[in-house]
Amino acid sequence: MNGKIAIIGGGNLGQAIASGLLSDGHKPENLTITRHHTHLLSSFESQGVGITADNKKAVTSADIIIIAVKPYKMESVLKDIASEITNNHLVISVVSDFKIEAILSQLTNKPAVFRAMPNTAASVNESMTCIASSNASEKDTKSVVEIFDALGKTISIDEQLMDAATVLGACGIAFVLRFIRGMIQGGIEIGFDAKTATAIATQTVRGASELLIEHKNHPEAEIDKVTTPKGCTIAGLNEMEHCGFSSALIKGIKTSYNNIEA
Fold first, then answer.
1. 221 band by pLDDT with thresholds 50, 70 and 90
2. What angle separates helix 194-215 from helix 172-189, to the nearest 10 degrees?
3. What EC number(s) has UniProt assigned to this enzyme (predicted)?
């Protein structure tokens, strides 16, 4: 992909995006990451990535700016870099609960602004990234999609759904990992060592996802293929539902969403 990219905020998500870009072939010399404690980015520096604590410096040397800071830091970061952002920049925010209108209100110039919500699977090029924009050109949109397609899959949504995308796609990573942890613990309880249980559980989850992606089926259609009358699968599924498995998951998703909305 063309253009120099500055990632403002080298925390977990910022690093995941950087790792994904590098593994997809983005030149390290065209990438800069900022963080107050730059020593925490030494692994990127050793690869040739530009590392600095100076956000303004990073912005002036970049064509595309990806802001990946904590929500409570967003306003102060925007005020700090606003004077350096020109109409020629492409600004992408991966900060939750901070609207495009609010970003533009902090800037002197009015560049193309996007919101994107990837997840930490970006580091292994398997993110699900939702993007939204306001009055962006087709060229700008193509550039943003190209960046996040390098990190996995991309889907365009209305900005009003960005909070929902944050919960389902970004928080969803934690939900799925907790499910996998439960599978591993159950596997250990029925006789496997932790390493073997982990291998079986993770590949099973990967396989289940691929079934839905490739077959484009509803989950229940695939479930029906492995449930037989009086079988062990349906017995286990019914016990999970009796204990509130689906209900707990749905309630967790809604609670996370309501926490953003609060």
1. very high
2. 130
3. 1.5.1.2
Query: Would the annotation count 70 as a binding residue?
Result: yes
Q: Is 186 annotated as a binding residue?
A: no
Say whether 9 counts as a known binding-site residue: yes
Residue 109 marked ligand-binding: no
- Residue 3 counted as an annotated binding residue: no
- Is 12 part of any known ligand binding site? yes
- Does domain 165-261 sit in CATH 1.20.120.450? no
pLDDT digits (tens, 9 = 90+) for 223-233: 999 999 999 99
CATH code of domain 5-157 = 3.40.50.720
Q: Where are the beta strands (DSSP E) in 29-164?
A: 31-34, 50-52, 64-67, 90-93, 112-117, 127-133, 152-156
pLDDT at 98: 92
Q: What is the residue extent of each domain of the chain?
A: 5-157, 165-261
pLDDT class for 2, splitting at 50, 70, 90? low
* Residue 1, pLDDT score: 59
Q: What is the C-alpha to C-alpha distance for residues 256 and 137, in angstroms, rounded to an integer?
A: 33
